[in-house]
Amino acid sequence: MKLEKKYSDGHLALSLEGELDQHTAQGLFREMESVMDRYLPRSCAVDLSRLSFMDSSGIAVVLRLRKKAGENGIKIWLEDPSPQPMRVLAASGIGRLVKIENRKGSVNR
Amino acid sequence: MKYENYIKMEFPSKTANESMARSVAGVFAAQLDPTMEELGDIKTAVSEAVTNCIVHAYPDCLGRILLRCRILDKNRLEIVVRDWGRGIEDVEKARSPLYTTGGEERSGMGFTIMESFMDKLTVRSRPGEGTTVVMVRVIPQRTKKS
Ligand SMILES: Nc1ncnc2c1ncn2[C@@H]1O[C@H](COP(=O)(O)OP(=O)(O)OP(=O)(O)O)[C@@H](O)[C@H]1O
Ligand SMILES: [Mg+2]
């Protein structure tokens, strides 16, 4: 699991790469949390286009991130989930709580 | 029941084994020539079942997990994930969406995902004795594109 971060002008761009499951979830969440604390951005986008696998452990990570962002007044959303993570996100109905943006124009399900 | 092929393996309840278990199930399923989406669904369901054994069945010890994959009647993939851990008091309640005993690190979506990604889900459990999850997914045989 790899986390890439770019900060500029109040916006934090995070990008996940690898497989997000129970084995990697806790470490990833801690790292994302500390990056948010360091930059205190106004907005944060989480790019999921290079995330090759995610299960419900990832849903919990997204929910915890959303909570963390809410507490700190940070606007947060997900970007371009690859097909498998998108199916898990859709099945969980999390799109009602966190915006999922598809910049490449593919349709959300 | 007649089966075409099977694998059976046992491993300890370490989170590092999650990716190994779903990969093995995926490699086994590949002989049915599934689509990428079908393969993703199967791996996800296995990941959910195995994670449940690790975090719920054996919350504070290492235990045994059994994974068995079989091909039944040419195009049905059956996956069994079994543990000998804590067990589930009320299976019906446990299967309902958002129900979790796991707190903030869980979303209570595991069984819901297994149910929606597989064609059939059976859960047998006895408190103190363990849990057996049986999942079936039909992989339609498609004519090869040339
Ligand atoms: N193998 C198991 N042994 C004991 N209890 C289990 C087992 N599998 C599931 N449970 C119980 O059923 C509940 C629901 O399981 P489910 O997978 O749907 O959600 P979760 O594991 O709590 O959260 P998530 O899967 O979203 O991370 C669990 O919280 C747990 O109490
Ligand atoms: Mg679960």
Largest sheet of chain B: 5 strands, antiparallel
Helical residue percent band of chain A: 40-55%
CATH class of chain A: Alpha Beta
Query: Hetero groups bound?
Result: adenosine-5'-triphosphate, magnesium ion
Q: Strands of the biggest beta sheet of chain B: in what spatial order?
A: 1-2-3-5-4
General description of the model:
The complex is a heterodimer of chains A (109) and B (146). Chain A is of the alpha/beta class. Chain A has one domain (2-106): Transcription Regulator spoIIAA, CATH 3.30.750. In chain A, 40% of the residues lie in helices and 34% in strands. In chain A, helix 3 (83-92) links the parallel strand 4 (75-79) and strand 5. The longest helix of chain A has 18 residues, at 22-39. The model of chain A has no long low-confidence stretch (mean pLDDT 95). Chain B has one domain: Heat Shock Protein 90 (2-Layer Sandwich), CATH 3.30.565. Chain B is 33% helix and 29% strand. Chain B has helices spanning 17-29, 36-57, 91-95, 110-117; strands spanning 3-12, 64-72, 76-83, 120-126, 130-138. Chain B has a five-stranded antiparallel β-sheet, covered by helices on one side. In chain B, helix 2 (36-57) packs antiparallel against helix 4 (110-117). The termini of chain B are far apart. The mean pLDDT of chain B is 95. The structure holds adenosine-5'-triphosphate (ATP) and magnesium ion. Adenosine-5'-triphosphate sits between chains B (48, 52-53, 56-57, 83, 85-88, 94, 99-102, 106-111, 131) and A (56-57, 60).
Topology summary:
The complex is a heterodimer of chains A (109) and B (146).
Chain A: E1 2-8, E2 11-20, H1 22-39, E3 43-54, H2 56-71, E4 75-79, H3 83-92, E5 99-101
Chain B: E1 3-12, H1 17-29, H2 36-57, E2 64-72, E3 76-83, H3 91-95, H4 110-117, E4 120-126, E5 130-138
Antiparallel strand pairs in B: 1-2, 2-3, 3-5, 4-5
